[in-house]
Amino acid sequence: MKKMMFGVAALIVIGITGMTGLLNAAFHMDDISDQEYRISLKKAAAIVKNETKEHNISAIHFAVEKDLDNPTNATYEYQFFCEGQVIAVNPSTGKTTVRNDTKKAAEHLFDIEKAEEFKQPQAAMKEAVSYYGKKAKVKEWTLLVKDERPYYKVRLIDGEQDRQVWISA
Known about the structure:
Layout: H1 2-26, H2 41-52, E1 56-57, E2 59-64, E3 76-82, E4 85-89, E5 96-100, E6 110-111, H3 121-132, E7 137-146, E8 149-158, E9 161-168
Antiparallel strand pairs: 1-6, 2-3, 2-7, 3-4, 4-5, 7-8, 8-9
Protein name: Peptidase
Organism: Enterococcus lactis
């Protein structure tokens, strides 16, 4: 009888610990450099091009949706910055959302089809993590043209420090 009670108590403790860990993992953001999404950058660019007929963009940003109280890995989106608007693509469903953008247009625009020729985001993020070690976690990245060359601007969190790395695309 004592063995059975001990076994039940152990299962309860393991169950509670597991549920707490799983709940915690579901409601905070992890390192996105190891995440695989159903919609790749290449597919997202094709979706934007087909749905909006927009070819010239100033940047592609992979970040959490704006104005969210509790962001998680499920709230990330590809954000394509065009003249006067941001076209967001959900990396899980491919659904697009168009929002107005009041920021000044960037000087350097590039053709959305060029994104296929650039380094893949996962490779750029892994390169950025290698600069600060495995404890650094990627929070977002931006693909843009600076000085007529394409770059990934990768934002990392290393402990409590917010860091930014520029990686050639």
